[in-house]
Every structure is written in C-alpha cells, then in structure tokens.
C-alpha cells in the first residue's frame, strides 16, 4: 500500500521492554481486548484498529506499549502509527544511533535477524540517508533514540492511517493538533460511527472573543472533526516516556466521559503502568499545560545558579503558589487538583523537555531564534502555553483585587514569574537572567499570601473553561 512501511510481526511472547502477556485484576490481556472490542461493536474477523497520530517520544512509546501488550493477538487488533514522511536523520544522530544499537545485544540481534542492520552501518558511514519513518519501523523514535522500542507498523499517508480507525491516539503537540485533525476530518466524512480518541497533548490555546477562554487539544479535535466530546479523552500524568517504556513504575489518569474512561483505563493498565480514571476532562488537560510554563523557568534557574538547591526551592515555592492561584481561577474545586498538578510539575522539573529547554537557553546552548521545535526533543509546548496563559490572565474582564493596592487588576499582575517568562520568551525584552531578578525581588510578598488570597476570595471564573 502506498505510504506504508510494514514491520514484520515478531511472534515471540517476550517484548523489547521485557514485558510478557499478563493478568491484570484477574483479566488476561485477551479478555481485556475482547471487552473493548465488544464495547466498540467489533465482530469476529474484524480487528480493532488502533492508530497513533504523531510519533514524538510519548506518542511512540504509547503505541509501543500497546504493541507489546496486544500485538501478538493479530486476528483481533491492528496497531499502527502515522508520522510525516521525508524527515532525514542527520549524520551525527545516525552515528549515535549506531552506538546505541551496538550497545544493546537484544536490539543488535533483532536487526540482524530482520536483515535491517546493514542500513545503520551505511548510515553511520554516511553512505546512506536514514529517515525518521524508516527507523521508527525498527523501533527507534527520532526524539528518543537512546530508548529502543519494539518494531512498529508505520504509515506515512494520513488518510490511509486514520480512515477506518476505531481508537485514535493523539500524540501531536497541541500546536499541531488542530491543523492535522482538520485534515483528518476530510477522511471521516463518510463514516457511519465515531471513533474514540485519546489525546496525550499537553498545551492550550487562548481565545479572547467574545469572552476570554481556554481551548484545549480535546476541544480542538472536537471542533475540527465534529466528534462529540464524550468520545474524546485525555490521558496524562507525572511520566517520562523513556522511563515508562523501560518499565519504571508509573501512573496516569484518563479523563473523560463515563461511557469510555473506565473501560479504557482497564484496557491501558499494565503492571508497571497504572491508569486511573476521572470525569474532569478539561481541567486536568489544562493543568497538564500549566506545569510546562513553569518548568521552563525552573530550568533557567537551575542553569543560572549552578544547580543551587536553595534557589531552586525558592523558585518552586513561588511558581507553585502561582499555579495554585491560577487553578482557583479555573476550577470550582481546585483542591482536588493539588496532588496531580504538583506530581506532574515535579517530574517535569526533574527531567522534562521544558525544563531542559530553559536550562539550555540560560546556558546559551540554544537561542529563541531556533524556535520551539528542537532537534532530538520535539516541540517545547511550554513556550506557546506561556503566551496563552499570559494573554488570558491579562484580560481586564477577569480582574481581581490586588491585596496591597486594593484596586482591580488583571490576574496576571499577581503572577510575576509568568509575566517575566512572557517578557523573556515571547516579547524577548529580557534575558534569561531576569528570572532570577523575579524570584529575588525584595518587594515580593510571601508566596503563602498569594495562596491565602486564592483560598479566601471568590476567584473562580467558569467562562475560562467553557466550551464556547
């Protein structure tokens, strides 16, 4: 078929990350698959079609986890992943990939067995150009080549990938989600039923007309395709993609309608990857984008202070107080979000790409002129989130009472770190050193006071998360 790279299916029952068919809460893998198939109305001889859209680190790992768990049940499920064609692997990356391959005996033997090793030798020598979709077929994600995955079926033609999909995994950055799903909608016009979509994207857009509000990736997908929001879910948690694939214990939440979330949580759950469910779709999705904002600043502080634990703790206290303040604007019951938000923030500050990006900017190893799509890392979603949250919280229609000036101000006036990040990343008026000035401002009041303001005043603005 045109645009398709098919990976031969390995019939062994031990997978690349060491996982094996298993029982979960008394149900075998096949029983979990049969339950989901029945819910989606699949009959014998009609495989459940799962399609990943976007092949960044998390999107690729997510599809690889499903392939490892269910791929051996070929008569009942087909798993494939779409990525754009034509992305060449540069010489330095090809050399590093060759080193990774030769350091892993299991990967080396697999490639030799599949007659795929020679092309990596040629890529290492510069005698051949490797392509991202080509190496993904062999289990190498361009954004995460140090963590080999299982072989995947890769499709480079979007129409071919999605037209008959039953379950779609959105692994695209939030900044690309709308555009791609608008194209997908053209291929779904003749569908009788709606697919189920799980979005992994963490990012937001701001809409200011007619009233300020946040638009999340699930809303973008629904608006672009006409798929009802009850068929679109969000999965997120305090996770690093490579560590999850290497079977580090992790947990996540799948958020959305009662109709799907519990069944999908059961289907996705593995012994090392626990998936809970929650009905608050939009708020959890927004929180996933909010932590990326402050992770960039954390990376800057770490780089500028030579990893000073004291400076990082000062920043953490201030940024979490701002996040708590913002959650009180967004959520009617913000206390329910405290644990998940802080956990996700913590892991992102430790090892996430947004903190890495801030660190590299402050060290001068990256520049803003390079954009927010970085080789080997993918899209830095915190940059667009900084702009979106700043625009929203700058609106006078959302005004709050300033605790000292005792007058109405836009909410962003109580978020000095967000304001500073906007001046650094978006307006480009300040250097990265300004983040240190923001956290060392002698006139800044105790972050506890900001939390008390949030808790003692009625800040909730329901229109911020309204669907229209």
From TrEMBL:
Keywords: Cytoplasm, NAD, Oxidoreductase
GO BP term, example: carbohydrate metabolic process
Cleavable signal peptide: none
One GO MF term: NAD binding
Compartments it resides in: Cytoplasm, Cytosol
Domain Glycerol-3-phosphate dehydrogenase NAD-dependent C-terminal: start-end pairs: 280-429
Name of this chain's protein: Glycerol-3-phosphate dehydrogenase [NAD(+)]
Organism of provenance: Rhynchospora tenuis
Source taxonomy: Eukaryota, Viridiplantae, Streptophyta, Embryophyta, Tracheophyta
